[in-house]
Design brief:
Blueprint lengths: L11 E6 L2 H13 L3 E2 L4 E3 L5 E6 L2 E2 L2 E2 L10 E6 L4 E5 L1 H11 L2 H13 L6 H12 L5 H19 L4
Parallel strand pairs: 1-4
Antiparallel strand pairs: 2-3, 3-4, 5-6, 7-8
Helix pairs in contact: 2-3, 2-4, 2-5, 3-5, 4-5
């Protein structure tokens, strides 16, 4: 959200490492640098930030339909010698947040829609969301999150599907 310019700051930094070998390598390096695994996904030193690092196509418990490395599934931000930093496409970003469904997640999703000024295709979002939800054990719950979100988009921003 911060890298896209939709939030000024973040309490944590979420990273997806699609390749399992690279995930193992990264977490080993973090341990060597003094980071501790403080939650299921979280790594931190005495610094303020927690790095939540997800393996494969997962963000928390949400499995993305496709790898974020496939064309169109991410927006490249910065390339380094061994790391490519990118941000999930808007649709997958919103999907992962709505699957969790906290108040902050809803506000973040509204910020994305607001920031895209009507350019986000809500029908495409809904279709992709429902396909992703069809693989979830909480399909009804997360689909309800989508319905609530789309209602808020319509009420607060005037956009409909």
């Amino acid at each position: 959200m911060t890298l896209l310019g939709f939030k000024d700051s973040a309490k944590d930094i979420d990273l997806i490492v699609p390749d399992s070998r690279e995930y193992v390598y990264l977490t080993r390096i973090l341990k060597d640098l003094g980071y501790q695994n403080v939650s299921q996904y979280g790594w931190r030193t005495e610094d303020v930030f927690i790095f939540d690092i997800f393996r494969g196509n997962f963000v928390y418990t949400t499995e993305l339909l496709e790898s974020p490395l496939h064309a169109g599934n991410q927006t490249p931000i910065q390339g380094f010698s061994s790391i490519q930093l990118g941000v999930l496409n808007d649709y997958d970003l919103i999907i992962t947040k709505l699957f969790r469904g906290t108040g902050v997640d809803f506000e973040d999703c509204l910020a994305v829609v607001r920031g895209r000024a009507g350019a986000l295709n809500l029908r495409r979002l809904s279709e992709r969301f429902k396909e992703t939800a069809s693989y979830s054990i909480s399909e009804q719950k997360v689909n309800r999150n989508l319905d609530l979100f789309l209602q808020r988009v319509k009420e607060e921003l005037g956009y409909g599907t």
